[in-house]
Design goal:
By secondary structure, this protein is α+β, with helices and mostly antiparallel strands. It has two domains: 56 residues, no CATH class; 358 residues, no CATH class. It is built from 13 helices and nine strands. Strands 1, 2, 3, 4, 5, 6, 7, 8 and 9 form a nine-stranded antiparallel β-sheet that branches. Helix 5 runs antiparallel to helix 7. The chain is globular, with a radius of gyration of 23 Å. It starts with 46 loop residues before the first helix and ends with a helix. The N terminus is likely disordered.
Length: 457
């Protein structure tokens, strides 16, 4: 997992002047609520929750009523200004106050829990831009990302879109595409693992929405915070790079369920049950490039495969729930394997029913993607759903912005996708429409920018 420094505790500054002014954020001062340890579910009414400032919707509304905060736009603003510090902290503690550290061994946005809103954007360097311009751009981007992730304004040209919000678990992650290295004269530093992905039979790829010199992943638990970061990154690009493609995604909002749950995709299926976990002894070996890896500038980094996967929802939704479960190999209600048990119960691939047939069909998606069915191949899936409208025939343009992380895509994504190509029952209901592979270097240390070891090595 990423090595993170202690959360910052500073007094809020509502001024917009200076190099890195604080946003006018309720609860961004030294009374910021303590966060629950990763994976620990805390009831909003428990003593632990109260001590950490975690409040339920009921308690939040009660606090608003007690302090006389109006719910309209003008009244809400006045309420923030008039409310005492403890109330301001409570108003942000559930989502807005959560902060992810920018500096660390690994970049943020890889092991960070799924966020409610995401933006993926690829850039191409402008004509005439090279290594020098790329280094200056990554330096600007890193500075902006650090400020925004801390709940600060991006700089003197900040748009104020997220002025009233906290960090909201914002993460900004940077990567390099295959073409970046020729554009910057760094071909000798290009990793072998960044060789182009092979063609797959399920591909219907739009080249204009694939690949790119540079890739940025933005995630946050507030839509305005995420958009604010997207806009700042685009503005920082200036004349050095232009947007090649950009995609927007979403997940379930934190607190939308009674307890922490694996997310569902737009097919209604629980998605990500068998993801590798940082607590597993081989997690780092599977997901991150080792310190002694080749090339050395990728130490602590990872490789991101990005695929826009269209879900043919009209066809999918014509299936009965039983048929949908056979396609996936898991129950739709709770994600448990068809062989029985709960969501995390090991799947029994040999179990048969009264008719003598395998309970988990031979072409079920969950069977085919298992690491033990693919020579141990594993990847950390961290996707966003997308919905980009409905066409004139009433067909939704919706699906999955698939993002997966691995130490080597040739041992992670590629063998699994090849096997899916040969007989996955789900392939009838999806279409891969764009693709990208990006080398994501390790995190930046204090005083450094992302990619500095490559660009100044």
């Amino acid at each position: 997992m990423a090595e993170q420094s202690a959360p910052k505790t500073s007094t809020p500054d509502v001024s917009r002047e200076g190099a890195s002014p604080k946003r006018a954020v309720p609860g961004s001062g030294s009374d910021r609520a303590e966060k629950a340890p990763p994976g620990e579910a805390v009831s909003a009414e428990s003593p632990k929750a109260l001590s950490r400032g975690i409040v339920s919707r009921r308690r939040l509304l009660g606090t608003a009523g007690a302090t006389g905060l109006a719910l309209g736009a003008a009244g809400g603003a006045a309420g923030y200004a008039a409310a005492p510090s403890a109330d301001r902290t409570a108003l942000l503690s559930s989502v807005g106050a959560d902060e992810v550290m920018f500096h660390g061994k690994h970049q943020p946005g890889i092991t960070t829990p799924l966020q409610a809103r995401g933006h993926l954007v690829a850039f191409d360097l402008s004509a005439g831009a090279g290594r020098k311009e790329a280094a200056a751009l990554l330096r600007r981007w890193s500075t902006t990302a650090r400020r925004l992730m801390a709940g600060e304004a991006s700089g003197s040209g900040d748009t104020d879109v997220a002025r009233d919000a906290g960090p909201s678990s914002l993460t900004v992650t940077f990567g390099f595409g295959h073409s970046f290295f020729a554009r910057t004269g760094l071909e000798k530093q290009r990793p072998i693992a960044l060789d182009p992905l092979p063609d797959f039979s399920s591909d219907h790829l739009d080249k204009a929405r694939s690949n790119g010199d540079l890739w940025v992943q933005i995630g946050a638990n507030d839509s305005l915070v995420a958009f604010h970061a997207l806009r700042a990154i685009q503005q920082d690009a200036g004349s050095a790079a232009r947007v090649r493609w950009q995609m927007n995604g979403f997940n379930r909002s934190p607190g939308a369920t009674t307890r922490p749950m694996t997310t569902r995709n737009l097919m209604g299926q629980i998605d990500g049950t068998r993801n590798p976990k940082p607590s597993e002894s081989d997690f780092d070996r599977r997901i991150f490039v080792p310190d002694a890896g080749d090339p050395s500038w990728m130490a602590g980094g990872s490789y991101a495969v990005v695929r826009r996967i269209r879900m043919l929802l009209d066809d999918w939704e014509k299936l009965s729930v039983k048929d949908q479960e056979d396609v996936i190999g898991r129950r739709k209600s709770d994600g448990a394997p068809l062989s029985g048990g709960a969501e995390t119960t090991a799947m029994d691939l040999e179990k048969t029913g009264g008719d003598g047939k395998l309970v988990v069909p031979i072409n079920a998606h969950a069977r085919i993607t298992r690491p033990d069915e693919n020579g141990g191949a594993a990847m950390l899936r961290r996707p966003f759903s997308f919905h980009d409208g409905i066409d004139a025939d009433g067909v939704p343009d919706a699906g999955l912005l698939f993002v997966c992380w691995q130490a080597d895509p040739l041992r992670g994504f590629v063998p699994v996708q090849r096997k899916l190509d040969r007989g996955d029952a789900l392939s009838t209901f999806i279409r891969h429409e764009s693709s990208g592979l990006f080398a994501v270097p390790g995190g930046a240390a204090e005083g450094e920018y992302v990619g500095q070891k490559l660009l100044e090595g």
